Amino acid sequence: MKKDMPFDFSVTDIVSETVFAKTEQMGLPGWVTVVFFSDCIGKEDISHGEVLLLAFLDGLCQSDALPDEIIFYHRGVLLLEENHAARKYIEKLLQWDVQFLVSEESCEEYRIFLPEKDIPRASMQTICRHMLRADKLIYP
Question: Which residue from 26, 38, 62, 91 has the highest number of Cβ atoms inside 10 Å of its Cβ?
């Protein structure tokens, strides 16, 4: 152990690895959060990226294993617009037990109005806390 480190972190690391290994052996993924920070996948080919994102959302809706939470920030909030093609998938996910969280700063920046009570707006500080508590973060 280094002199400037008051704790031996190796014990904690072993415990964390063991718990994670047992969780995976039992087939339990833990708390899964999907994070949309853009309205497309990738930056090089925007139109193809939009198609890929819609395909991802369709796959998510068809999956047996849904995420526990979906977070939207930055340009990801544009997916929530009423006339966006992603909206039909989001409405399906809202019907299931998936929690949603949307950046209020991004909604204000892009002038997105969310009348749905099921899609709460939150500060980026709150979103940060939610992301830190997740066992797995998925960024499509």
Answer: 38
Q: What does pTM read for this prediction?
A: 0.79
Domain boundaries, the chain: 29-138
The span from the CA of 78 to the CA of 109, in Å, is: 11
pLDDT in tens, 47-80: 999 999 999 999 999 999 999 999 999 999 999 9
Give the CATH number of domain 29-138.
Answer: 3.40.1260.10
